[in-house]
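Please decode residue identities from the backbone states below.
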């Protein structure tokens, strides 16, 4: 017997996290959140992001494509994620999944330090699942730096399976762990 469980509806009942598409007026807060997160990532040995990436141009491109989602807690920006339809560089073919199958891919997921542990990342990933279902997609994909212990714990808790390790040409010297969640 299969049960359909919509995590986003549970979150809306139990969490004060609200989600919406980002707008250009969010840019100062996005950059401020980024300025909080990147030094903490680097201090933890996680070099996935730097002072140069992501940046305002990346956020603007995500917004123009309708991909950048923001999460708010109590009216304050608490996190963001780019939720893209099948945006995967060729290197993603290294992972243990069907690269040719269209998927909803989460990129640039971040949560403000003060909001960590309050369901923000889970809410953004639930939004990815909602969008995938709306678009008729059966796969959700995400990758994280091999040094990002927090996301390596989070993704399996939310039903993602480890799908291997890849390298990306635009981030030389780094290893990335891939995760996939199949939708029924």
């Amino acid at each position: 017997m299969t049960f359909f469980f919509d995590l986003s509806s549970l979150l809306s009942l139990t969490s004060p996290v609200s989600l919406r598409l980002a707008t250009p007026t969010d840019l100062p807060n996005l950059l401020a959140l980024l300025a909080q997160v990147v030094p903490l990532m680097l201090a933890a040995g996680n070099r996935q992001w730097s002072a140069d990436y992501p940046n305002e141009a990346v956020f603007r491109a995500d917004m123009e494509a309708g991909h950048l989602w923001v999460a708010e807690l109590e009216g304050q920006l608490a996190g963001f994620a780019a939720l893209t339809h099948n945006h995967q560089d060729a290197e993603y073919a290294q992972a243990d999944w069907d690269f040719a199958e269209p998927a909803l891919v989460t990129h640039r997921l971040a949560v403000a330090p003060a909001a960590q542990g309050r369901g923000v990342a889970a809410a953004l990933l639930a939004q990815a699942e909602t969008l995938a279902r709306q678009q008729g997609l059966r796969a959700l994909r995400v990758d994280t730096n091999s040094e990002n212990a927090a996301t390596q714990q989070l993704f399996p808790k939310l039903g993602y399976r480890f799908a291997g390790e890849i390298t990306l040409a635009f981030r030389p010297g780094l290893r990335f762990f891939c995760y996939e969640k199949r939708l029924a």
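Observation: The chain has one domain: 7-182.
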